[in-house]
Amino acid sequence: MTYETVKVETHGRVGLIRFDRPQAMNAINIQLIRDLSAALDALEGDRGIGCLVLTGSERAFAAGADIKEMQNFTYPDTYLDDFITSWERLSRTRKPIIAAVAGFALGGGCELAMMCDFILAADTAKFGQPEIRLGVMPGSGGTQRLARFVGKSKAMEMCLTGRMMDAVEAERCGLVSRIVPAADLVAEALKVAGAIADMSLPVAMMTKESVNRAFETSLAEGVRFERRLFQSQFALADQKEGMAAFIAKRPPNFNAG
Ligand code: CO8
């Protein structure tokens, strides 16, 4: 399948989605969200794919929502068309997905990165929620997710001033899991994704679901949820395989079941 604004490749059991609007710093327009959603649907529907990577270019992961497309929207346009709700497709991705960010991840770009399960940053990465400088506020989860990643004080400062943070600050405050040299970013993301894709797919998906629960519920409820999923994993052939392989001192061969 071909898309206008993203490129999709598969590397073994890993699906790689690249934003591809170089003329606009990968600014996110309606077509890009359509393409991203279709690519996610295709990769999620493929049992042979165990993990996804979302990336941009060396210059920009994505420099935010497309300001040229948005500038003349009216309130009825945004309300009646439920503008932005379709962006949430990314946050409903059930397979593990890694954001590999080089260059600018601003506004909606930072919000899309935060919808992924974790962010690997190139040393060139710059994150920010500059919407306030355009007379609006973050609209795709930025105020909520950034506060959960980095805490109230820094999230407030970022959203109220619109300043950018570099990769070192982003790692220090927990927005990104790791920094890698820009030249190695995609290769490293594919390597990490490949390792995840070699795990049991249902177990990886349940693990993701369970970690995400931590942000939506109380500790007691979350622990109960985790226990139910954990117990259910003893119904999987992958549990028998993983433990038998450990005892036999051989690598496991998980088969998504
Ligand atoms: N929208 C449209 N075009 C853009 C965007 C954007 N967000 N960002 C960059 N471009 C375009 C520029 O207009 C320019 O085009 P042209 O060559 O035709 O003039 C081209 O990309 C290159 O950009 P610059 O010349 O500005 O490159 P610089 O290296 O000088 O600067 C920056 C790079 C710092 C990234 C700068 O372009 C910039 O500040 N961009 C805007 C960043 C921003 O404000 N992002 C937030 C947008 S609002 C938002 O995301 C709200 C999300 C809410 C939820 C979702 C709603 C849909």
CATH superfamily of the largest domain: 2-enoyl-CoA Hydratase, Chain A, domain 1
Q: What is the count of β-strands?
A: 10
Number of helices: 11
> Ions, cofactors, ligands: which are bound?
octanoyl-coenzyme A
Mean pLDDT: 97
CATH topology of the largest domain: 2-enoyl-CoA Hydratase, Chain A, domain 1
Run of helices and strands: EEHEEHHEEHEEHHEHEHHHH
Number of domains: 2
Report the major sheet.
Answer: 6 strands, mixed
CATH architecture verdict of the largest domain: Alpha-Beta Complex
Cα(first) to Cα(last) distance is: 28 Å
SS-based structural class? Answer: alpha/beta
Radius of gyration: 19 Å
Q: In one word, what is the shape? A: globular
Percent in strands? 15-25%
GO molecular function: enoyl-CoA hydratase activity
Family: Belongs to the enoyl-CoA hydratase/isomerase family.
GO biological process, one term: fatty acid beta-oxidation
Keywords: Fatty acid metabolism, Lipid metabolism, Lyase
Layout: helices, strands, pairs:
Elements: E1 6-11, E2 14-19, H1 30-44, E3 51-55, E4 60-62, H2 67-70, H3 75-80, E5 97-101, E6 104-106, H4 108-115, E7 118-122, E8 126-128, H5 142-150, H6 152-161, E9 164-166, H7 167-172, E10 178-180, H8 185-197, H9 201-213, H10 219-232, H11 237-247
Parallel strand pairs: 2-3, 3-5, 4-6, 5-7, 6-8, 7-10
Antiparallel strand pairs: 1-2, 8-9
The structure holds octanoyl-coenzyme A.
Octanoyl-coenzyme A is lined by residues 24-25, 27, 63-68, 84, 87, 104, 106-108, 130-131, 134, 138-140.
Give a structural overview.
By secondary structure, the chain is of the alpha/beta class. The chain folds into 2 domains: 6-197, 2-enoyl-CoA Hydratase, Chain A, domain 1 (Alpha-Beta Complex); 200-248, Lyase 2-enoyl-coa Hydratase, Chain  A, domain 2, CATH 1.10.12.10. It has 11 helices and 10 strands. The strands form 2 sheets. A 6-stranded mixed sheet has the order 1-2-3-5-7-10, with helices on both faces. A 4-stranded mixed sheet has the order 4-6-8-9. Helix 1 links the parallel strand 2 (14-19) and strand 3 (51-55). Helix 4 (108-115) packs across helix 5 and helix 9 runs antiparallel to helix 10 (219-232). The longest helix is centred in the N-terminal third of the chain and has 15 residues, at 30-44. 39% of the residues are buried. Octanoyl-coenzyme A (CO8) is lined by residues 24-25, 27, 63-68, 84, 87, 104, 106-108, 130-131, 134, 138-140. The site of octanoyl-coenzyme A (CO8) has 21 residues, from helix 2 and strand 6.
